[in-house]
Amino acid sequence: MGILAGNRRRRWRAEHAETADPRQQVSQKLWILRLVVLAAFAALTIQLGRLQLVQGSHFQQRAALNQLRIEPVIPSRGGIYDRNGVAVVANVPGFSAAIVAADIPEGSDDQIAKGLEGLLGVPALETALRIEAARKSKDPFAPVIIKDGLDQAAAFHLREQLPMLPGVQVVVDPVRRYLAGDVLSDVLGYTGRVDEEDFVTLKDRGYVASDRIGKAGVEATYERYLRGVVGRKEIEKDATGRELRTLGEDPAKPGNDLVLSIDLDLQKKATEMVQAASDGGQAAAIVMDVHTGEVLALVSLPMYDNNIFSGKIDEAKLQQYLDDPKKPLVNHALSEQYAPGSIFKQITGAAALQEGVAVPSTTITSNGYINIPNQYDPSVIYTFKDWRTLGTLNFYGGVAMSSDVYFYYLSGGYHAYGQNFDGLGVERLARYARQFGLGRRTGIDIAGEADGNIPDTAWKKATFGDDWFLGDTYNMGIGQGFVAATPIQMIRVTAAVANGGTLLTPRVVREVRDAQQHVIVPAAPKIEGNVGVSPANLAILRDAMTQAVSWGSANLASLPDLKIAGKTGTAEFGPRFADGSYETHAWFSGFAPADDPQVAVTVFLERGVGATNAAPLGAKILDYYYHRSKQQTDAGAPAPVGVTP
Amino acid sequence: MNLRNTPTREFDFILLLSALGLTTYGALLIYSGSLTTYGSPSQALSHPVSRQIVFAAVGLGAMLVLSRFDYRAFGPLSLTLYAVSIAALLFVLVVGASAYGSRRWIVIFGTQVQPSEIAKVAAVIMLAKYFSDNEENMQSLRVFLTSMAIAAVPAALVLVEPDLGSALVFGVMWLGMILIAGVRPAHLIGLFAATLALTPLAVVFAQNYQRDRIDIWLDPNKDPLGTGFNILQAEISIGSGGWFGKGFTHGSQTQLDYLRTQTTDYIFSVGAEELGFIGAMILFGLFIALLFRCLRVAGLADDAFGRLIAVGVMVFILFQVFVNIGVNIRLVPVTGVPLPLVSQGGSSLITVLASLGILQSILGHRRKRGRRI
Fold it and tell me: Residue A384's beta-bridge partner residues?
């Protein structure tokens, strides 16, 4: 059966092979090929129709997005002027080389990297790695700075080579040139490139990766005013990132200008004077308007050059600053805290008057020291020294001669050897110190302030696990021991004494103006509160401080034609020498004119004596402030004042 | 006079016109696609359009000459032609000029010549000759394997250049021709089964760049600025063309250089962007006319030799059109083959026009049906 069927099939096939016209067979196959042709084009047409007709509008959008890039227009940063309108900063063009990874043609990374190595000296490997990283990043269109701080010639040369380096850009962005030199660095601060970590949050506020931002000083504090409002520019670009034309622009709004309260001339002069008076160590001086809190001069030594942060950071110089034990990058007027010494007596004195611990006629005798017996073992005697045997003094004399014994009584009282004088005690003294703004930041518009320290019983327990002793109160009463304050805190104390008790927030920026010079933030004193001492009592203290200058310990601050009131301070610090003495900080904190106070001055010298070093320096600064027009006329031009200690 | 021995002298003007139409279409797109590099056509002879016109003229000349030349003379010449083309392929591998990591060119008198284009025609003639000599023997395995080897040798040589696209052209050409010549279905089924069995091996041994191409084809967003760039940008160009396109020389993608190799492999994207779906349909119409006229030649041919040449030429044009446009519209993984008659490049243009000349000769040198004059 099977064999039969097979034979039959074979025969059938043979018959058909003979009968079928080969030409007809071919023509059938050719028809199949025609169908294949039509099927192939049908498939192509269907897919093409899907792309062009079904998804056409989607791809039209994609094509539009391809050519259009919305790029931020970085506003020009606001200017900064001193209180008399002198410009202290300029925006100058800064050049840098950047790459835009998305615009670098595939496979030409190495060629670009080598090209940049030849032109800029940036290692090709480093550039190639950064291109690679940028390409993988979320925004490959963002320019990545390859070399910062190109000089103009190098930038122009690179720009000529750009046609051969697709994806490379010369970024021109304004950098800050600080015009006043080092003297304003601590006030102005500087700007720098946005840090990668910060950029995560800054991006939403209109910053770009290659942007600059205020990093220190008022540049940082007033960033939101100086920055301006970022604009947007719609530009058409080709595939290599060449800008073809600008289609639309929402212009950037330039930053606002700052008017400093600083008086540049006074700032320069005060700096010279402090430099001359200092032994080269740390020093600070502040001049402040006692009614407004406006800082007229703020000196911190040693200084640094804030221009090293503009454009490319001068690494060598920066390292030198960082290695310097005198910490030039630290603002010594507000970021470092020191024992205030006897200028703290302003607070002890005011508190004693206000609390009725003393009246102007309260007399205390200084034999050069006081002894107090140990409260458990009276045979153990502690001695607290005065700086000199000063005899019997009333309140004015106590302040004027800066008698430590007088202030031991006021602060801690004296209950021994038949005497019974009630002092303020630590808690009341600490409260007044805080009312005068110590132990916390003043809120000055420069970042980086130190808190200072006002101790009390609880603080000592928490910090050292130890009880508070009477001796601690004595030390505190004369601004030693655990008390620490910054110069800016201390000038606020003196200003409050001078103005009748108003605690002001110091400011270095007077007002903010927009680019058309309309005032946006007007000059107005910022009042933090009242020190809680009656004007009458503060008047007594002012009298006492006037006497300190006219005949007392601050006598070297007296001037023939300007009535100055002030208090000196000589604060021990560091390890004790073999003879029992210490190195001392020199302070002077005062104001003038004594009977109608306008400005306060606080000077601090890391090493020195208040009466002989700080007081005359403070007076010189006040003298210059009040008499400079006369001095300038006298000398023809403001000549550096030769200062002899 | 014996009419049976007089050539018909028929010349297919529709075939010529469709070829000319496609060449013109191509020249226009090359012009538009090179505006970014060549500002105006005034850069005379170096301009790609001028060069393309010169190549077209040479190709048309070859077409006319070959149409008067009896194609039967290629029979005895076929082995020599084939051997020369193989030698040229070997030569290009040894001393060829390298471009983009592959060696495809040799330079003759300052002109780049791509031997693989000539080898395609030589292989068509060689296969046509072999099949027509073995017309009675088509069922034998020996003919099946020998013919496969004829196609495989040049295919292997271009594959190592590497040029996968051209290698596939040889295979498809062979397949189309053997189907027309008459193949035993069992042989094809066997070949198909063997290919399936070897596929896993091919996947293992495929070069990384080929595997990457498939990956990127499936998801170009994996590397939108690198290897996926062309795929994505071609898709955007074509899709954004819509019905009528953005207008000649007004394609934003083309004119802003978002397309790469836009006068060769991606020339279809230029047309689809600037002339739209309608423009693409005109192109398809021209190709369909051309291919149908080739098949008409196959149908009218006097003998198996002529018929198979016509089929071979038709298949290699169709396959390249399909793959090239397929790559552009992301129907096919990226494979570099030119769009016949349209893409910039002399070797391909001249070869195709010359092949059409042979087809004209097949039409014009018929003897049996000469009465139709």
Answer: A370
DSSP label at A610?
I
Q: What are the two backbone dihedrals, phi and then psi, of residue A251, each rounded to the nearest 5 degrees?
A: -65, 155
Using a CB-CB cut-off of 8 Å, the residues of chain A touching B257 are 238-240
Q: Where are the domains of chain B?
A: 3-372
Closest CA to B216 of A491, A106, A600: A106
Residues contacting B247, CB < 8 A, separation 6+: B274
The HSE-up count of residue B24 (CA atoms within 13 Å, CB side) is 8
* Strand pairing class (B111-113; B102-108): antiparallel
Query: Among all chains, which residue has been given the structure tokens 């169908």?
Result: A35
Q: In chain A, which residues have their Cβ closer than 8 Å to the Cβ of B331?
A: 43-44, 47
Q: How many C-beta atoms lie closer than 10 Å to residue A121's C-beta?
A: 9
d(CA A624, CA A140): 58
The segments of chain A whose pLDDT lies below 70 read 1-22, 138-139, 238-245, 247, 629-645
Contacts of B231 (CB under 8 A, 6+ apart): B216, B217, B220, B330, B334
Measure the CA–CA gap between A472 and A429, rounded to whole angstroms: 12
Sorted by sequence, the CB contacts under 8 Å of residue B25 that are 6+ apart come out as B271, B282, B283, B286, B342
Interface of A with B in 399-458 (CB under 8 A): none
Interface check for A238 against chain B (CB to CB < 8 A): the answer is yes
pLDDT in tens, A209-227: 778 899 999 999 999 999 9
Task: Please count the other Cβ atoms lying within 10 Å of the Cβ belonging to residue A464.
Answer: 11
For A317, the token pair is 């110089």
Please calculate the CA angle B368-B372-B373 and round it to the nearest 5 degrees: 110
Q: In sequence order, which ranges of A395-468 are alpha helices (DSSP H)?
A: 395-400, 404-412, 426-435, 457-464
Q: B34: exposed, middle or buried (C-beta count within 10 Å: 0-12, 13-18, 19+)?
A: buried
Q: How far apart are CA A178 and CA A307, in angstroms?
A: 6
| B281 with A45: Cβ contact below 8 A | yes
Q: Which residue of B has its CA nearest to A55?
A: B239
Cβ pair A41:B311 closer than 8 A: no
**Which of B256, B311, B315 faces A238 most closely, judged by CB atoms?**
B256
B16 vs B344: CA distance, rounded Å? 19
Kindly provide the ipTM of the predicted complex, given to two decimals: 0.92
The encoded tokens of residue B291 equal 């291919």
Picking from A44, A238, A240 by the largest number of B CB atoms within 10 A of its own CB, the best residue to mutate is A44
Burial of A440 (0-12, 13-18, 19+ CB in 10 A): middle
Residue of B nearest to A42 (CA): B284
- Reduce the secondary structure of A58-114 to three states and give it as a string: HHHHHHHHHHEEEEEECCCCCCEECCCCCECEEEEEEEEEEECHHHCCCCCHHHHHH
Cβ contact A52–B239 (<8 Å) = yes
Q: In this complex, is the C-beta atom of A106 within 8 Å of any C-beta atom belonging to chain B? A: yes
My answer on whether omega of the bond before A506 falls inside 30° of 0, hence cis, is: no
Region label for B112, one of left (φ > 0), alpha (ψ between -120 and 50) or beta (otherwise): beta
Question: Nearest chain B Cα to A53, which residue?
Answer: B242
Instruction: Provide the 10 A C-beta neighbour count for residue B300.
Output: 18
Query: Which residues of A are less than 8 Å from B322 in CB distance?
Result: 40, 43-44
Q: Given the structure tokens 């000059």, which residue do they identify?
A: A523
Q: Tell me, yes or no, if A13 comes closer than 8 A to chain B by beta carbon.
A: no
- Kindly report the pTM of this predicted structure: 0.63
Q: Quick: pLDDT tens for A13-47.
A: 554 554 456 677 788 889 999 999 999 999 999 99
